[in-house]
Amino acid sequence: MxxxxxxxxxxxxxxxxxxxxxxxxQRLAADAHISPPTCFRRVQRLRAAGLIERQIAVLSxxxxxxxxxxxxxxxxxxxxxxxxxxxxxxxxxxxxxxxxVQQCYRVSPGPDFVLIVAARDMPGYLxxxxxxxxxxxxxxxxxxxxxxxxxxxxxxxxxx
Length: 160
Hints:
Elements: H1 8-19, H2 25-32, H3 36-48, H4 61-68, E1 72-80, H5 85-96, E2 101-106, E3 113-119, H6 122-134, E4 139-146
Antiparallel strand pairs: 1-3, 1-4, 2-3
């Protein structure tokens, strides 16, 4: 990755894109007080530097629930028997390859990993647990916490 320096305009652009990546280049440029061509070039530079990983749509689980069901979301703590770098890397590679795993964090102290997983229902979660945790001889302990309500979800990175 190339070395990149960020100025106040870059930080404003990144913050604005985190809030709404669907806005037009013209709107983004106006909010950042720069010309549209300059805005476009800066955003392309930020993308090329890897600071913008991707653009996605954040869906509303509450509005989707009547259409596709509520599903289950769980925060899962995982402790491994062996914590060698190879064992940690192998477990991490296996869980991040699974579509049900929405987020994966290697943590310390306490458990080795905290995962955020989604399943259609409890049988779906049990299948996920069997696939990812029970079948792995290195998994010592699994502790799952099921979400009753999402009070806040904010993927923004604080830039100031």
